[in-house]
Amino acid sequence: QVAVTATNGPATLTFDADATGTNHIYSTAALAGLRFGNNAGDYGLTVELKQPLLFRRNSAWGLNVEFYSAIVGGSGASPTDLFFLTQGDEYCALNPSLLNTNNTFRGDVHLGERQVYAATTMLTIGNAAMPARNEMLGDGANQVILRNKSTLRYHAGAEDSATCERHVVGTGKLASTKALHLEAGAVLEPLAISGSGYGTITVETSALTADADTRYVLDLSASGEGNDGLVVNVSSPLTLTGRLELVPEADERVAVGTSWDVIQVAPTATSFTSNLKKSPGFILTTTGDAETGWTVTATAAPLASMLIVR
Question: Would you say 209 and 182 are in contact if contact means Cβ atoms under 8 Å apart?
Fold first, then answer.
């Protein structure tokens, strides 16, 4: 166990530039835990990022990294991204936790390696004592980028549900210890960006609800070809709301009026899968109700432009 704490009043730990412009922390041996800040009372420590910070685990078994400290730094013009990467076999795991509601850093959070590894990476927001809060992920503009076997996990603590207000993009899993609610600002964007997978985000939670302005984005362009979309698994009925958007391929043409069912959800459904591999412009229509179930259909529009109908 290694702890970086402030036991005699407030202190700041600053990560400044190295030759590459990124600071690196590697775990190459049997380190079980790494903690920043005090886990009780006055958290004391503030972590200041003047450059992106990269954690990498490349030895067997798991490493827990807990941030009780506030994380600050970065701006829209100069973001300070956080990277949590794991190399190795299935016995190698990196499990960071963000636990401070005073995180204000501006930078995306990257989970999982670009290359294909059997190792796993899971970022948990909150814990049993401090339920998940949006502020734990820093600035509201910060995205969470998933690759390979990576998970963004919300810990609801003693509360009934957790709330996700983030733009989650890539290939991986969005999970919650209890029910999960997607706020209006939430965006789920499956995308085959690099590494293994075809651009699928799997949502696993006991129950799922969403605000009407939540967005589900399927990238059907050449770079997103093979996109398998969203897979949702819950243990109780879900509430299907939000906007489904398709990113078109401008050069592709399909017959006007061609339709594909994107999502089909029964009224008592506990799961659904969306799968669409065509483009370019679509009219989206939703039919059904809570008694008969819902079907979201994409119909090719006369022009190669994206039309959205709630």
Answer: yes
